[in-house]
Structures are given as C-alpha cells and as structure tokens.
Amino acid sequence: MPEKMPIKALEQQLNDIVSIKLKDQRIFRGRLTRCDMYMNLTLADAEELEEDQISAKYGQVLIRGNNILWIQIPE
Amino acid sequence: MPEKMPIKALEQQLNDIVSIKLKDQRIFRGRLTRCDMYMNLTLADAEELEEDQISAKYGQVLIRGNNILWIQIPE
Amino acid sequence: MPEKMPIKALEQQLNDIVSIKLKDQRIFRGRLTRCDMYMNLTLADAEELEEDQISAKYGQVLIRGNNILWIQIPE
Amino acid sequence: MPEKMPIKALEQQLNDIVSIKLKDQRIFRGRLTRCDMYMNLTLADAEELEEDQISAKYGQVLIRGNNILWIQIPE
Amino acid sequence: MPEKMPIKALEQQLNDIVSIKLKDQRIFRGRLTRCDMYMNLTLADAEELEEDQISAKYGQVLIRGNNILWIQIPE
Amino acid sequence: MPEKMPIKALEQQLNDIVSIKLKDQRIFRGRLTRCDMYMNLTLADAEELEEDQISAKYGQVLIRGNNILWIQIPE
Amino acid sequence: MPEKMPIKALEQQLNDIVSIKLKDQRIFRGRLTRCDMYMNLTLADAEELEEDQISAKYGQVLIRGNNILWIQIPE
User: Fold this and answer.
1) Residue ranges per domain, chain A?
2) CB contact under 8 A, D67 and E9
C-alpha cells in the first residue's frame, strides 16, 4: 500500500490510544494492537463510552471495520 | 493470512469463551468452535444476553459475520 | 471448503431441524434441505415464530442468506 | 450450478405460484416466470398482500433479488 | 445474457410505460428509455406518485438500480 | 461503455443543471462537472433543497454515488 | 485514474479545508491530508458540527469512505 493511503495513517498508530466511533453511535477507546485494510482492528484495554462516560470495559476487542464511522488518531 | 491480521486474533481464541455484539444490539456469549475470514463463526453453549441478563440459551449457534459489531476476546 | 469452516457446520445439519433468526427479528424453524456458502438455504415444514409462538406455517421456504443473523443448529 | 443449491429449488418452480416476502414486509404472490442466481425474478399475475389481504394487483412484476427475505415455494 | 434472465424482461419493455417502487416507498412512472444489468435505468416523462396521486413531474430521470424494490412491466 | 447505458445519459449532461435526490431525502441542485460509472459526481454552484426551498449553498460538492436515489436530467 | 474522475477533484484539495457530511447527519470540517479512491480520508484539525455549531474537536481523524454522503470542496 502506498505510504500516503489513509489506512496507512492508522497503521502508524499501532500501540497508541485511538477512539473509534461505530455506526450505533458508541465510542470505543483503547490501544490499537492490530489493523487491516478493511479497518478491522483489535484494541487492548478497550473501554466503551456513551456521552463521554465510560459505560463498559472489555479488555481485548476485535472490531469489524464495516461498522466504523471514524477513528480519532493521535498526531 | 499474516499473523498480525486482526482476524488472526480471533482464530487464536478457538475453544475460549467470547462475547459477540450483533447489529441488533444483542450479545451472544459462548465457546468459539469455528471462525473464518468473514467473521462467520460458531459458538458452543451459546447464551444470548440482554442488558447483562441471560435471555436465551441456544446450544450451538452459527453467526453470520456481516452482522457483528465487535467481539470481546480473552487476552 | 475446509472441514473447519463455520459454514461446514451448517452443511452437516442437512435433514435436521434448525432455527433461523432473520434481520426483521422473526425466527424460522424447519428441516434444513439445502444450503450454500452464502447461507442461502431451504427449509421443509417451515414455521415462523414470534415471541416463541408459531405465527405462520409455510411448507417449503427459500431464505436469502444475507438476511440471516444466526442459525441455531443441533449438536 | 449443482442440483443441490438452494437457488435450484426456486428454478424448479418455474410456472408455479410462489409467495415472496420483501424487506419492507410486503408479500408478493404470483406465477414465477423467470429467476436468476441473485434471486432477481419475474412474476405473472402478481398480487401484493398486506396482513393476508390483497392490497394491489400488478400484472407482471420484476422483483430485485437483494430485497427478498424469503420465498415460499410449493413442495 | 440468456433470453430467460429476469433482467431481459425489462429490456423488452424499452419505450413502454413502467412503474418502479423505490426503497423509500415512492413510485416512479414513466417511459423506459434505457436500462442495464444492475437495473440502473432512465425514464422519460417521469412522474412520482404517493398513495396513487401524482406528487411531482420530473421529465427525464436516471434511477439507481440498487434502490429499486420492484418494477411493474406491461405484459 | 455502450452509448445506450443509463449512466451515459448522465455523462451527456456535463455542464447542465441536474437535481439529485439522496437517500436522506435531501435534494442537491447544481451544474454537473464530473461523473463516473458509480454515479460519484461533482456539482458546481450546488444548492441543497428541503421541501422545494433552498436550505444551503455549498459551492463545489462531491457526492458519493451509492447514496443517490435518482437524478433528474434535462432532456 | 483519469483526470476527469470525480474522486480526482478531491485529490486536488489536499491540504485545503473540506466539509464532510456523514450518513449519521454529522458534519466534519478539517484540513484534508490523505484520501483514496473509496473516499477513505484523513483530516487534520478536525471539528464536528451539529446544526452549524462546533460540537467536538478531534485533532486527526480517519473517516471511512462508505459512510460519506457528500464532501464540500473549495473551488
């Protein structure tokens, strides 16, 4: 994949904390441990947030890429 | 599939207990017995949960991958 | 298809009674007579259930795989 | 296509009366005159039913396969 | 495309009046001037109907096939 | 692409004013400046309409084809 | 990709401010830093707007192309 592809920006965040908005409007926050070109990804220490409050803690979570609206990634 | 693919993290959980959130907001919990690259998977001793309560027991269940939001997997 | 594929677990149930949850939340129960890799399948003696009550009987039904949430299959 | 494919069960019903449930919960009933592997199909003498009552008559109708939930087919 | 394909039934209606139901429940009626295998099509003298009343007139309209539920075609 | 394809009717409207209905029921009106075979397209001087009133002006807009219901094109 | 493709109009805006409407009706505004042919893209200094008010600031955001309705791009 060329370096300038948007998905590459995600790959460069491996081991960083990211926030992920899903189509059901929930947000997951955790440490990015794996990702692929479909935006399937795994988080460690994953928390689910509703209206900025932590609503659940899940440990390791595999998120299916096609349900992702956006991913906030550190600069 | 390369070892670092997110879907590989699921394969490594064969025979472990996983929790699966579906698009209709229900959660399935059970022992992962099969999975493929589309996240189609089978659970043994599958339970359905609504608001953290067991709402049904199904024995063996085949879940269609494209309806999965996320999968909680043991670390 | 490799023997360990999830869809193989369905194929092994040909002629057994299965229950199928569709995206519109209805459940179909019947004898599995055909299936393919997209989870398209046919049931004989198909019944539709709403809240555990039989709401309709349809005889032979062809169900389109992409509308299936999950399939309960005997062990 | 192998004879045991689910879609083959539909092909064998050419010229028979079938009932088709669409994603918008309406049911079409008519004589199956054409079908393909995507479940695109044409009905002759097509009627639309709502709650078991005929709500409209359309003559010849082409139904797009991806909107079909299930098809009831004679045995 | 083989002559017996459902989509062929549409092609045979070029220059005839067809009615088209979209996923948003509106109906378009007009003279079919072009169509392709995805059911993308153009209508001339297109009218939009809501509850059997003409609600708008659009002249020439290009309709995207994947939003079509069904097409009523003359026999 | 053969001249009689529906998408060709769109291509012939480059630099003309078109109206586009999106799945969220909004209508965009503007001068068609680019289009491709997926109905991705750009409009110049784009206006958004709600119930026949201009609700916003956007200048140049790129619209994703898979959200389009239909396009009204001059004859 | 040919120069006249709609997606090319986006590529020409790299480093410019764009506004993006998502299927959940939110608008993101930010500096376009990467994009690909699926409209996956990254924004720097991304703000989320609801009814023309800034409702959140996210820094760098990766947006999944298939959730995009339209993109407003400077002329």
Assistant:
1) 6-72
2) no
Chain A residue whose CA is closest to G44: A75
CB G13 within 8 A of CB G38: no
Between the alpha carbon of residue D33 and those of residues B22, D3, D43, E74, G71, the distances in Å are 37, 19, 6, 14, 44
Fold (topology level) of G6-66? SH3 type barrels. (2.30.30)
The DSSP call for residue D68 is: E
Q: Which of residues 2-61 of F touch E (CB under 8 A)?
A: 4-10, 19, 23, 25, 39
pLDDT means per 10 residues in chain G (75 residues)?
A: 81 95 94 95 96 92 96 89
Nearest to E4 among D34, D59, D60 (CB): D34
Q: Which chains touch C (3 or more CB pairs under 8 A)?
A: B, D
- Across the interface, do A28 and B70 touch by the CB < 8 Å criterion? yes
Complex ipTM value: 0.91
- Model's pTM, two decimal places? 0.92
**Distance between CA atoms of residues E59 and B34, nearest Å:** 54
CATH number given to A6-72: 2.30.30.100
